[in-house]
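We store chain and fold; thus.
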Amino acid sequence: MYNLRYHLASLVAVFLALTVGLVLGSVVAEQGTLESQSSTLVEDLQKQFDQIQKENADMRTGLERDRSFAADVVPVLAADALSGKTIAILVNAGRTSGLNTSIAAIKQAGGTPLVLTLESPDLGLATEVPTAVPALLGGQFAEQTTAPASRPFISAVADALAAELRTAGERPVLLALAESGALTISDNSATARVDACVVMSAFDDEPDAFALAVAKGLDQRDAIAVGVEAAALSTGVALSAVDEGFSAVDDVESSQGSLSLVWLLSGRATGYFGIGSGAEAVYPSLEAATN
């Protein structure tokens, strides 16, 4: 009996060992499969990552090539487009975004920029009326000697500036405003007739109503007015210019924006160009370059 029990116990032990071996073997096999699958997944992800890196590098190279091409081509397309023309730039104090680019684009196209830097909204006429200005305007406005200036007076000042800028010769109202500190002129001796103007003046990210009024006065006297913004700083000037019936550019610091500005100022194209939601296109049709 002892031998039979021993034999049965041995058989049970053997079966238990086999069972444990099978279980452990399955676990080891599954772990090996998982490890294999994980290795395969990592390899696939690495290949995809390497491909994405290569595509990004190719894209960066292509973008740099396109930028270089645009920078080389724009001067050719803009050459002499503004030759002999004077372009007024109406900008607020402290503005740098887009200003230097606009000046460079105008000069590159053969034009002469005349920068008028407005020191405060409405030239500060709400707080101070320059002594000489009322007499220069004459009529009903000669009595406006104290602040705040009336809206009709401010409008009359804007229109007087537009009239002076559009005519070659002395500019007493402009010089009086400069002497009072209401604005700064890049060239006090400039007397050439202004053929077009760039409006980019804004205070507290709001378009300056006075600058738009001057541009409107120039537009009514057959000068071209263009609202200008840099893509990095949205001021609403472009859309406000469009509302006034002017053309506009909202990415003047790009090569496309500089070319758009020159073509608009020269009369080769009209419309709203740039990257804003209201823009008609990034830049005017190339057909404008040959017209």
Remarks:
- The first helix runs from residue 2 to 78.
- The CA atoms of residues 111 and 194 lie 11 Å apart.
- The longest strand covers residues 86-92.
